[in-house]
Amino acid sequence: MKKLSLYAMLAFAGLFMASCGLEDNEFAGLKTAEADGAVVVPGFTAGQLGVIDLNTVEVSDAQDVQAFTVSETALPEGVVLSKGEIEFEDGTVLGTTADGKVSGEALSAYVSSIYGLRPEARTVVGQVCLYAVQNGAAVKIDAGKLTFQVVPKAPVIAAAYYLTGTINDWNNTNTDFELSNGGQDPYANPTFTCALNMEALGNPTSIEFKATPVDGLGGDWSGCLAAGEEGKFNYNNDGGNFKIEDIKANTKIIRLTFNMLDQTWSYTEVAFNEYIYEIGNETSWSTSHPLFGANSDGKYQGYYFLNGEFKFKPNADNWEGDWGQSPDAPYGTLVEKEEWNCWLEEGEGFYRIDVDIDAMTWALKKINYVSIIGTTNGNWDTDTDLTYNQAEGCWEVTCDLNAGEMKFRGNHNWDGDVDLGGSFDNLVHGGSNIAIEAGNYTIKLYISVAGQHKAVVTKN
What we know:
It is built from 2 helices and 36 strands. It is mainly beta. Strands 1, 2, 3, 5, 6, 8 and 9 form a 7-stranded mixed sheet that branches. Strands 27, 28, 31, 32, 33 and 34 form a 6-stranded antiparallel sheet that branches.
């Protein structure tokens, strides 16, 4: 095939002035390509490769992954290719070297932005262009449209892992200590957690373990997660044991967190306080509301009016160690780091708030009604409703009551939403019926947290 002068290509592409000395028409075969500003050189196209598996190469910022091949035999003599680019169908452009290499990290990020990080072959289509130079002159050459099959850079993540170590005598078949993300797609939610009950383990002062994938249970250690550099881990049992040492004597739970894509791990020692606290929009984030843990088991409860976003924290007077909604898990899942504010799905109102720091969950139950029920208003199946006074933070009513017994309940049922009895100045859930004389009463009922529930009852 006749060699073509690069100056001819430049002239045809309109990149240089007529003074380049081109006087004949032998370059009429060159035409402008669809790629903006590029020209077509007959016989010059980029070569197609097979599947590009980014998990089999060392991926970095460097342009180190072969995306296509190039042959310069169809180019004019003396032409040197300087660089290239791939423009994908959505307009994204990745730069390449002159011989068709691209940044593996950039290619993986682009493909995973469309398909996610699951390591499967994905199809993307891109226009390839190369830049050529000769004697200081340059031109952009259309090298054709290619279909790329790319496997994004990501480890193969098991559905679940099981801790194997001093906590279970290194029994590789034991499944008591599951490290999981609740069964979600691990490439959408790579955060796996496990909570270790220290009392059940005999309150050890240190533990060691590895994490066995579910398909390795029964003796196969080859796929275990192993400790790497500080705060990091490796796949395929490449490293030592995970170690947690000098465990505090008052630690109730050790919560482990593994990010399977970042290959990082951390742990938190949890000592259950008597109270944790809710804080949020209902007080312009200025007042901490206590939630009580009656059994020192990490489960807390309280009742408050909510009208927007909120969070939880261990201490009333600071934000150290606060918890919020996990951005990568279902509604009602708590996380300590990189958390979102919690929010309402049912709108503002009065709620029972339940938090389980052991399970790292939170839940709301909207209390639409609080009522008086008993023989004081006829029988035990007729409710006299109170109205919530947001300014005073109480449920209130003025009504006539018969002599007899009464209690307060929520949502017109006995399902545990609210069931308060005992005495007006110390109302408790499941408490006894309260005796009262006949008369007209104004009642203000304050429901917040166990030990602080009370009713101010005034006979008119």
